[in-house]
Design brief:
about 600 residues; mainly beta; 2 domains; 6-stranded antiparallel sheet; 1 helix; 29 strands; about 20% strand
């Protein structure tokens, strides 16, 4: 009798988990007296950043090392009693100054468990500048960024694994006199393409709590630039190195034991070594193993009920109390509507993977709110409207900010929100974009909208997204030249809480003459685009509605209502987790 004869919930002794972290190569031995089940995190070394040379551009960012994990809810490994070899991959070297060369690839990390070894591939090297016909970033766990002119990012998830171990690097800018290198890919997002006269930021890494603390790993390195001090791409969360920021300043190396890619080298465009710098080296990898101990000495009691709690439950007629369990969540609000400026994405908040979960109690109903997208307006008639919030338990994501619009003398800032809306001007002065991550939360739920620049003609900026800020319109400093006038929307963020990667919360482009304007996709929280013709006063587009997804252990009993909302049981390697998806407001029952 586990409770020693006490009436109440059973409190069986359990075996404590033992977590072992390897920051250098070594040998893992199963604890206790035999084989057991283990979760794992295996991150390879990041790729080195590329170099520039006189007369050319800055180097591209290195790709993050491959990221493979079973934690949480993945398929654990059966580990034998015999020792297992663990290899920690080193980061690739950054390219030498004044060489136009690529960096070098990172090395793989391996948990050599037989017959199912886990190997993560090293990150791909960032390309060097000026390598006509040879400016593609190297493939790898995540691909390296492409080098100017027009080099493509290296392919990520090479060789392919499921789930993917990484993402593709960003592309360099192609027109003459722009000179930016692409960002390296990260475990959580692709590397960013280089905006005009700026380096592309590295792709975001992924957070994991296998060590007991949420930690980001495998961020891509930032791409650098020529002749624009401070225009370097930033490294992705998870140890990605920033690109070199000024003459002679090297790219920042990826953080050790994160698998972050190295930053690209800055190039001032002038002759001599003082105007050039080296690429940053990739960060080394890491292996973490979390195994349930087989040794009875690690047994611990699962808990006791204090006498006061027992009394209260008995008085309420609810003894034995309901069990609690932890759930992951994704809460995306409705996107902002477009007008002249593009609508900002709805706020994006998630615990998956590796963040702090929410504890829910069995036998309880939890209301779910799914935010609507904001409505549009004509770019000369007024601004759009902001999206509505989405809510689950203590988590509220704010609706995306509206895209600004107005008459022929207006100078209007986009609306604040989860991500800020793009601004609009038809005047001789510009204005900043709408504020993102408003109100502030950590991690941030979004990014600012793009600003406008002083002009006597109309220009409109893109709305912010969960993965990046909105861009200034074409013609402004660092403006996006690929949207026929309007600034590009900020990137969204990919999430696999539903077992397949889906991108949510992308910002929308500002008005343009191009054919790509559209409403935000339903249940993504994307912003709505600005109109396509400034002079004609064409209407912008509505923002997309939000979504709420809750992921529970396979042993949990959950339901979702009304009937348009669903509960599914995930196949391997998700280990039978249950996922409740809310596309409209409703109720989660536990």
């Amino acid at each position: 009798m586990s409770n020693g004869g006490i009436i109440g919930p059973v409190n069986d002794p359990t075996r404590g988990d033992l977590t072992t972290s390897f920051t250098s190569s070594g040998t893992y031995t199963s604890p206790g007296f035999g084989p057991g089940q283990a979760d794992y995190l295996v991150v390879a070394g990041g790729g080195g950043g590329g170099a520039g040379a006189p007369g050319n551009a800055g180097g591209a960012g290195g790709g993050a090392g491959g990221y493979r994990t079973s934690f949480p809810c993945g398929t654990k490994l059966t580990v034998p009693a015999s020792p297992i070899t663990v290899t920690i991959g080193g980061g690739g070297a950054g390219a030498a100054a004044n060489s136009n060369a690529k960096g070098t690839d990172g090395s793989p990390s391996t948990f050599a468990n037989s017959p199912s070894p886990i190997t993560s591939t090293g990150g791909g090297a960032g390309a060097g500048a000026g390598q006509v016909g040879n400016g593609t970033g190297n493939p790898g766990g995540s691909g390296g960024g492409g080098g100017w002119p027009a080099g493509s990012g290296g392919t990520g998830n090479t060789p392919p694994t499921s789930p993917p171990q990484g993402n593709t690097g960003g592309t360099a800018t192609s027109p003459a006199a722009v000179y930016g290198g692409g960002g390296g890919g990260g475990a959580g997002a692709v590397g960013s393409n280089a905006p005009t006269s700026l380096g592309g930021p590295g792709g975001a890494g992924s957070s994991n709590s296998i060590s007991g603390t949420p930690t980001f790993y495998a961020g891509g390195g930032g791409g650098s630039v020529r002749d624009t001090p401070g225009g370097q791409g930033t490294g992705g969360s998870g140890g990605g190195g920033d690109a070199g920021s000024n003459s002679g300043v090297p790219g920042v190396s990826g953080t050790a034991n994160t698998g972050g890619g190295g930053g690209g080298a800055f190039n001032s465009g002038g002759p001599g070594p003082s105007n050039l710098s080296t690429g940053g080296s990739g960060g080394s990898g890491i292996v973490i193993v979390k195994q349930t101990a087989a040794n009875p000495t690690y047994n611990v009691a699962s808990g006791v009920w204090p006498l006061q709690c027992q009394y209260n439950y008995k008085k309420q007629g609810t003894w034995t109390p309901s069990a609690t369990f932890d759930v992951d969540y994704l809460v995306v609000a409705g996107g902002g509507g477009g007008s002249g400026g593009g609508g900002g994405a709805g706020g994006y908040r998630t615990s998956f993977p590796g963040g702090t979960k929410i504890t829910v109690e069995g036998g309880t109903s939890y209301p779910i709110t799914v935010g609507a997208g904001g409505s549009s307006n004509t770019n000369t008639g007024g601004s759009g409207t902001s999206g509505s919030p989405s809510i689950f338990s203590t988590i509220t994501s704010t609706g995306g900010g509206f895209g600004a619009g107005g008459g022929a003398t207006s100078n209007l800032q986009g609306g604040s929100g989860g991500s800020g809306g793009g601004s609009w001007t038809y005047a001789s002065s510009g204005t900043s974009g709408g504020t993102g991550n408003s109100p502030p939360v950590s991690p941030p739920q979004g990014n600012p909208g793009g600003p406008t620049y002083p002009t006597g003609d109309a220009n409109a900026a893109g709305g912010g997204g969960a993965g990046g800020a909105g861009s200034i319109a074409n013609g402004g400093p660092g403006g996006d030249s690929g949207n026929s006038g309007g600034g590009a929307g900020g990137a969204g963020s990919a999430n696999s809480i539903s077992n397949s990667p889906v991108t949510y919360a992308a910002g929308a482009k500002g008005y343009s003459s191009g054919p790509t304007a559209s409403a935000g996709t339903v249940n993504t929280g994307n912003g709505g685009s600005g109109g396509q013709n400034a002079g004609g006063g064409q209407s912008g587009f509505a923002g997309g509605s939000g979504i709420v997804i809750v992921r529970a252990p396979g042993s949990a009993n959950i339901g979702a209502s009304p009937g348009t909302n669903t509960v599914t049981t995930l196949p391997a390697p998700a280990g039978g987790c249950k996922v409740a998806t809310f596309t409209v407001s409703g109720t989660l029952t536990t």
